[in-house]
């Protein structure tokens, strides 16, 4: 069995231990005689799986009791609509545009009310996080929306915006469980799990209870109303059972690794190896403002498209997969999520050094 070093932005690498455990339980989950894929979502066995998963993520993120944890479907993109549908009481919201995912959410919100772009880093190809310490947020805005880690451009908020008392809504798809977080600063935290937690098909939304109401926009589909999902403990209809089961295993893996403080230390160590190399390299360079660099997604270029292509091809041949940058930005991107081992990054840097020497 040959596993590659997988630098995919998502779906992405998962802990090998988790995959092995899932393989062992594939045919017979804990004496039930069936796979988790085959069992009723109303069964005792699955009830335990989802309850334990919720308890574990609550413990990891220190989620207060007045927040609900929902396991949903539809990808992070579905929440681009669900957020305004559930929260736009005044039909107005402030959006900070730091990349394509924030922009998509902003555009979707325009279908439901007035989405106001209060800051943007589009002027420099989203290579930084704008100053959000004194934004012009409309008095009647229902919420302020951010994409906390910009998967495509490789930036991350190191400080949350001053929302001037408005509810903060954050898409954390690509930084979920990568470091400790103060949940109380947010009204809504949500993300697709396929970047850092599990298989595609599950979205986790952590929502303060007072924001979960029947007062949603007219025409909001039953399934997109958070209250429907909250009242049914995420079992209004068949949830993505197998995905939730894998997420639960990843939560246990993170707990075993020492929780989110340990994850942060592990992620900082990995990112430092790569950024330190980029900062002194004569061939490769990072594309992001250093103070705003993501710990999860590291974009870089040689400055020569042909050379970029050659690098991606040779890296692939050497066992480093999915280093091609996003189709809209080109260059390279190494996504180094929780499950990427330190050796993966060390070996990548070794390979980059060799490539640099050969192509100087
Ligand atoms: C990948 C990603 C999305 C889109 O997720 P889907 O589950 O494919 O809808 C949204 N936001 C961010 C930050 C992402 O990284």
Structure summary:
With 360 residues, the protein is of the alpha/beta class.
Helical region count?
9
CATH homologous superfamily designation of the largest domain: Type I PLP-dependent aspartate aminotransferase-like (Major domain)
Count of beta strands: 14
CATH architecture of the largest domain: 3-Layer(aba) Sandwich
- Order of H and E elements: EHHEHEHEEEEEEEHHHEEHEEH
- Bound ligands, named by name, code or SMILES: pyridoxal-5'-phosphate
Tally of distinct domains = 2
Tell me what portion of residues adopts beta-strand conformation: 15-25%
Find the CATH topology of the largest domain.
Aspartate Aminotransferase, domain 2
* Mean residue pLDDT: 97
**Percent of residues in helices:** 25-40%
Based on CA inertia axes, which overall geometry fits? globular
Strand sequence of the main sheet, in spatial order? 2-10-9-8-5-3-4
Determine and state the CATH class of the largest domain. Answer: Alpha Beta
Low-confidence stretches: none
Radius of gyration over all CA atoms, rounded: 21 Å
Summarize the main sheet. 7 strands, mixed
Provide structural commentary.
The chain has 360 residues and is α/β, with parallel strands linked by helices. It folds into 2 domains: 16-256, 3-Layer(aba) Sandwich (Aspartate Aminotransferase, domain 2), CATH 3.40.640.10; 259-359, Aspartate Aminotransferase, domain 1 (Alpha-Beta Complex). It has helices at 16-24, 44-61, 75-87, 100-109, 226-231, 241-257, 259-280, 305-317, 342-358; strands at 5-6, 67-72, 92-97, 114-120, 143-147, 149-150, 155-156, 167-171, 188-192, 203-208, 285-286, 297-301, 320-321, 332-335. The strands form 4 sheets. Strands 2-10-9-8-5-3-4 form a 7-stranded mixed beta sheet. Strands 11-12-14 form a 3-stranded antiparallel beta sheet. A hairpin with a 4-residue loop joins strand 6 and strand 7 (155-156). Helix 2 (44-61) crosses helix 6. The two termini are 35 Å apart. The model has no long low-confidence stretch (mean pLDDT 97). It binds pyridoxal-5'-phosphate. Pyridoxal-5'-phosphate binds at residues 10, 75-77, 101, 147, 151, 171, 173-174, 192, 195.
């Amino acid at each position: 069995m040959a596993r590659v070093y997988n630098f995919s932005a998502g779906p992405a690498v998962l802990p090998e231990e988790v995959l092995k455990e899932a393989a062992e339980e594939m045919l017979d989950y804990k004496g039930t005689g069936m796979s988790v894929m085959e069992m009723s979502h109303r069964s005792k066995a699955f009830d335990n799986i989802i309850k334990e998963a919720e308890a574990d993520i609550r413990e990891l993120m220190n989620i207060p009791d007045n927040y609900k944890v929902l396991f949903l479907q539809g990808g992070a993109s579905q929440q681009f609509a669900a957020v305004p549908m559930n929260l736009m009481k005044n039909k107005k919201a402030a959006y900070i545009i730091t990349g394509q995912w924030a922009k998509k959410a902003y555009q979707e919100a325009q279908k439901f009310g007035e989405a106001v772009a209060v800051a943007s880093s589009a002027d420099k190809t989203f290579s930084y996080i704008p100053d959000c310490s004194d934004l012009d947020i409309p008095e009647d805005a229902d919420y302020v929306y951010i994409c906390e880690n910009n998967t495509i451009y490789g930036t991350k908020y190191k400080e949350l915006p001053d929302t001037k008392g408005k509810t903060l809504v954050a898409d954390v798809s690509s930084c979920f469980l990568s470091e400790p977080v103060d949940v109380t600063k947010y009204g809504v935290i949500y993300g697709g799990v396929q970047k850092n937690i599990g298989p595609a098909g599950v979205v986790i939304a952590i929502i303060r209870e007072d924001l979960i109401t029947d007062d949603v926009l007219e025409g909001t589909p039953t399934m997109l109303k958070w209250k429907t999902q909250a009242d049914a403990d995420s079992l209004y209809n068949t949830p993505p059972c197998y995905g939730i089961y894998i997420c639960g295993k990843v939560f246990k893996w993170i707990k075993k690794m020492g929780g989110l403080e340990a994850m942060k230390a592990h992620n900082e160590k990995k990112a430092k190896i790569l950024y330190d190399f980029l900062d002194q390299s004569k061939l490769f360079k990072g594309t992001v403002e250093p103070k705003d660099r993501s710990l999860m997604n590291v974009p870089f270029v040689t400055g020569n498209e042909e050379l970029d292509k050659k690098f991606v091809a040779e890296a692939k041949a050497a066992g480093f997969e999915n280093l091609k940058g996003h189709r809209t930005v080109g260059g390279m991107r190494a996504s180094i999520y929780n499950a990427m081992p330190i050796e993966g990054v060390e070996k990548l840097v070794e390979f980059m050094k060799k490539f640099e020497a050969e192509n100087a």
